[in-house]
Amino acid sequence: MPQLPRRHQRIEDESSSSQNSDININSNSNNNRLLREAEDVSDSIIRQEETQDEEAISQQLPSSSPPPASSPASGVHRIRKRNIRLILTYTWIIFAGRSIWNQNVLATFCFLLSGKDPKLVGYLTAAMGICQLLVSFPVGYLADKYRRDHLLKLASCIGMVAAGTTLKVLFWNGHQHQPTYSALMFSLCIWGCFWGIANTCLTAVFADSIENGERSKYFTKRSILINLGNLSGPTVALTMFLILGNEWTLMDCAYVMGTGQIICLPAMVLLCFLKDPQWQEQQESRPEDCDDMVETSRQEEDSLRTPLLSDLEEEADDERSIQANGRQGTSTPPETRPHRDETYNASKLASMLSYLCGGCCLHSDGGPPKRIIPSLVASADVLSGLASGMSIRYFAIFLYDNLHLKPVHVQLLYIIAPLLQACLAKLGQVLAKSYGRCKVTVAFKWIGVSFMMAMVTVTKLSQERIENGDKLVIAMICTLMVIRTGFMNATSALTKSVLMDYVPNDERAKWSALESFNMFSWSGSAALGGILVDYHGILFNFCITASLQFVATWPHLLLARAAVLRTNENENNTHNHPERSQIEVDRSSDRSNTDGRDRRDAIA
């Protein structure tokens, strides 16, 4: 009798538990059904509102259908890549043609045309530089306000006129078919106008087409192509002089110069195919803004789903987000990973400037003035241009009049020098990654100055042996000159990359116009160099050049002492400390988004 109630009780418990489980299953199915219905209602509401927003935006846009969201970025990217290829090709062609007629052949041609008067060689160069200066600064202002590719098309037309005028001067001038000094100066003035427009706009377009952190690489490539172009020109001139008889005559020089003018013409055509990437970005930003409006509305409407989701789904989302954040904390995406860069310590710059100028050039808060880095680089370039201009036109005359070299021998030297310069430019870029761009620049410049003084000393002590035709002494002097030329000119890409890294995008054309001022100072000092050569001789001119080139390294020396590099040790420390790595990533991302503007405003 007592077992019977327990059995009935067990049966009742089993029946009640089965009923409860059925109720739970029914309730869960009802909840899932209600959740699906709520999501369907939410999706239908969101789709209707998205359709209405897209119709409203399409009515505000022009009749032509906007491109997809990925096309503007890819379109600007293609334009930038094409600009880089075209500019590099233009660089090689234009400098190959220019090196045929504008290096040693032009100086010797003018020297012979003027009756061996060195002053007239300097005056001719000064006229071309003045025209380039007068054109470059207004062009630099216009290039920052309007489309730069239109100005490059104008430069292309002026360049073709300059080449045609020079050809007429060389071969069809007057009844005697004899070129005159005044006509040659007029044609070179047109060339100065071309360089003033082309160089100012081309450098700005080239810098805008390169991503941050890669300018040193591409400017070094352009520098190497300049050297290869300067290598190709003397090769053509050497072949022509061999065919013409290997003598310095006016007509032989005219034939060589005319060939160089013709080679320059295809490069001028390439200028017409360049596009301004900044203008392209402005034109394509409007469809992107509309897409951003649609995306923002979608994000706001997605918030309607949140109250309808179950707690289990929210926990799953939280877990996935925690996992994603954990992955982001341990590894940085490649596009936001900070590149190895060279920055400059503001306090060190301020202390050195305070020591040099007594604090008169500092801000009221004790910091360095704005744009101090590009100002120092530009001042160094101006001083170096003044120094180089005094002697650059007279190396060919030195080889012809002092060492008595034939045209073929001179062209061989002008072939070897750019080849060595290209190798040293590549070496300088590699060394700059470890030691900094300014330190490498100072070291190379000092080596070049040392070889310049050695060349002057050997020439001064071996005058009699040179007059007697001692080939060993002449070969030694030529070797010193080639090594000096390679080291002095191998750092232009490094200094140019520093300048372009620390100026805003909308000021790059103005700072590029400083190249024309350098050309003017270079040309003006060429006239001064001609006067020095006329009164004191070429060797005295070379000594003054070496002294000024040493002084021109002082601004780079200031930047070299204030330089701060990211080394492999710094990168390893950031990997060992994820929170520090994240801070560096955020700083690098901010710098890349503002194109380095915060860094320039604080230091430059």
TrEMBL record:
Q: Name one Pfam family in it.
A: MFS_1
The keyword Lipoprotein belongs to this UniProt entry's keyword annotation:
no
Q: Which GO terms describe its cellular component?
A: membrane
Looking up PANTHER family in the UniProt record yields: NODULIN-LIKE DOMAIN-CONTAINING PROTEIN (PTHR23525:SF1), TRANSPORTER, PUTATIVE-RELATED (PTHR23525)
The UniProt keywords, alphabetically, are: Membrane, Transmembrane, Transmembrane helix
Keyword Transmembrane set for record: yes
Q: Which InterPro entries match?
A: MFS, MFS_assoc_dom, MFS_trans_sf
Origin organism of this chain? Cylindrotheca closterium
Ranges of Low complexity composition bias in the record? 16-32
GO MF term set: transmembrane transporter activity
Biased region (Polar residues) positions are 322-334
Origin, by domain of life? Eukaryota
Which chain regions cross the lipid bilayer?
84-101, 121-142, 154-172, 184-207, 228-248, 254-274, 412-431, 443-461, 473-495, 539-559
Listed name of the protein: Major facilitator superfamily associated domain-containing protein
**Gene3D superfamilies per UniProt:** MFS general substrate transporter like domains (1.20.1250.20)
**Compositional bias of type Basic and acidic residues: which residue ranges?**
295-304
Location of the protein in the cell: Membrane
Region Disordered: what ranges? 1-76, 283-341, 570-604
Q: Which residues form the Major facilitator superfamily associated domain?
A: 392-574
Topological category with respect to the lipid bilayer: Multi-pass membrane protein
